[in-house]
Amino acid sequence: MIGGTGKTGRRVVAGLRARGVETRAASRSGETPFDWADRSTWRPALAGAGAVYIVPLDVSPSPTPALVEEAVASGVRRIVLLSARGVDVPGYFGASYDGNGPHMESETAVRGSGVEWTVLRPGWFAQNFDEGVFLDGVLSGELALPAGDGAVAFVDADDIAAVAVAALTEDGHQGQVYELSGPRALSMGAALAEIEKATGVRCVYVPADEREFLAGLLAQGMPEDEAALWTDALRPIRTHREAVVADGVRRALGREPRDFADFVRDAAAGGAWQR
């Protein structure tokens, strides 16, 4: 499990262990040391593994091809890769995006590995509202993003993990690319309204100018490349590309994906937005 302590990784670990599958959570802070920047940690983390779930770094050039090569040499027979929606679509993240970014480098490596593979392409996570990049805005009462009036078919990270667990442990997923989303698209304002309805926590969505948003990130000290990446990642919301409802959860699991309201109910029960 490469990236075993992240949003999807820790859920995949829990899902595998619930099935009684011996699982190793590898990350810089996990029980098994793994550091993308230290290749001496790769082989010990992979030793003896029959299958691996990879959460790649979104950097170019991607280190994933080298890791895939190491995994195959270590005897891994099945790879499940976390990718992202739109990575193969030129222009998805702006006019300069040619459809050949680091996620596609990772996908190409996995497809050409010679072992069984499955690729997961989720859209925006519902969990961005309670444990991710939207949380501070929600708690402050104002979420300002350059997302216009776009809507998002937010996918629950529990569904992503469930698909990953199935692909790691079951037959029938080899060579599949699963586009993952929730069952309906919501505007940012509608998503915040659902949180308010369940919790009483009120937050206003404010459509921000893209250039002003980027300048604000830079003023806060965010590195230029990271600020540009974050700003570009929001563009598909504004252009309504993230509103598309995909069928990957249904194809992989034989059921409908969890609704955003289900996520809100469970997150609220866990005290996610208590100030």
Automatic annotation (TrEMBL):
Write down the InterPro entries for this protein, in alphabetical order: Ergot_Alk_Oxidoreductase, NAD(P)-bd_dom, NAD(P)-bd_dom_sf
Q: Which SUPFAM superfamilies match?
A: NAD(P)-binding Rossmann-fold domains
Pfam families on file: NAD_binding_10
Q: Which residue intervals define the domain NAD(P)-binding in the entry?
A: 3-170
Q: What is this protein called?
A: NmrA family protein
